[in-house]
Design brief:
about 10% strand, 9 helices, 6-stranded mixed β-sheet, about 35% helix, binds guanosine-5'-triphosphate, about 300 residues, 6 strands, Conserved Hypothetical Protein Ylqf, Chain: A, domain 2, binds magnesium ion, alpha/beta
């Protein structure tokens, strides 16, 4: 596995963003509602100095509807205006537009249009959100990190411009759990991490927080063995007929089925993080982990 901590293109994107921030009036920071702590880029904060920020908890359709309001309250207590949004269906978008227009009320006589920039880590749905705000497919959207390559302006009306930006990660991680959450929500290419480690993390969260999610999707395993991750991988493999030579379950394929079902929301809404827990924070991850998010 090639080790690239913070590839050149991201450093360049950061410089480009820094330059453009000077000419924008509002920052729309997009995070993944399933992991709002891990998917917030700490490297962005120093760049935003003084600009008003609206935080969007996107993909809220995939997150636990009981947990997302707790996050909203948590951020609001920290003076961060915050909205839950589903950019696939447009839920929360009218409220966001309202918030934008609220900020937009400015003294008359300004010479340039009012500008908002959409920032965040890769694959959180920045471009999808812009398309919802614009009500058309103006930006390319795809379920992999690194789709938006450079900054792109979009005019929304005579006096409002939006800027889409490429997803940005930060150079160093401290918490390995943060990296797992980033990979689970698709912000770092999964191939950069050990997929079975991702599966174990996910299975633990499901066991502790969403005990019905696995039985609902795959049925109850017949044995009454330990309720550990391995038991579920074996069961998923057997249910799906993913057998390797000798009749043993093909672990890799079972992992892929599980992660695919999670990403597509087929396990039901799941929040990987809750406010008040020991939160993932940035720092060194260890070898073999590439945060480029690039494919
Ligand atoms: N379920 C769900 N999927 C979403 C939502 N928003 C975006 N997506 C999907 O997430 C994937 C990534 O969306 P993009 O808009 O390309 O993400 P991005 O943040 O612009 O990504 P980069 O340009 O790579 O930084 C796409 O498959 C979208 O359809 C949402 O609110 N809910
Ligand atoms: Mg994009």
């Amino acid at each position: 596995m090639d080790i690239q901590w913070y590839p050149g293109h991201m450093a360049k994107s950061r410089r480009e963003l820094q330059a453009r921030l000077k000419i924008t009036d509002l920052v729309i920071e997009v995070v993944d509602a399933r992991a709002p702590a891990s998917t917030r880029n700490p490297d962005l904060q120093p760049l935003l100095s003084g600009k008003p920020v609206v935080l969007v908890l996107n993909k809220s359709d995939l997150a636990d509807p009981q947990v997302t309001p707790q996050w909203q309250a948590w951020f609001r207590r920290r003076e961060t205006p915050c909205l839950a949004v589903d950019s696939r269906r447009g839920v929360g978008v009218p409220e966001l537009l309202e918030m934008i227009h609220l900020h937009q009320e400015r003294p008359a006589g300004r010479l340039r249009p009012w500008r908002a920039v959409v920032v965040g880590i890769p694959n959180v749905g920045k471009s999808a959100l812009i398309n919802q705000l614009a009500r058309r497919r103006a930006m390319a959207v795809a379920d992999r990190p690194g789709v938006t390559r450079g900054p792109q302006w979009l005019r929304l009306g005579p006096a409002l411009e939006l800027l889409d930006t490429p997803g940005l990660l930060w150079p160093k991680f401290t918490d390995p759990a943060a990296a797992l959450h980033l990979a689970l929500v698709g912000a770092i290419a999964e191939a950069r991490l050990d997929a079975s480690e991702l599966a174990v993390r996910l299975l633990e969260i499901l066991r502790d927080r969403y005990p019905q999610a696995l039985p609902r999707r795959y049925g109850e395993p017949p044995d009454d063995g330990q309720n550990d991750p391995q038991r579920w991988l074996d069961w998923i493999g057997r249910r799906r007929g993913l057998l390797a030579a000798g009749g043993k379950v093909d672990q890799e394929r079972a992992v892929r089925v599980l992660l695919g079902d999670f990403r597509e929301g087929r396990l039901g809404p799941v929040s990987l993080e809750r406010p008040g827990e020991a939160q993932a924070s940035p720092g060194p991850l260890g070898p073999g982990v590439d945060r480029s998010g690039g494919a």
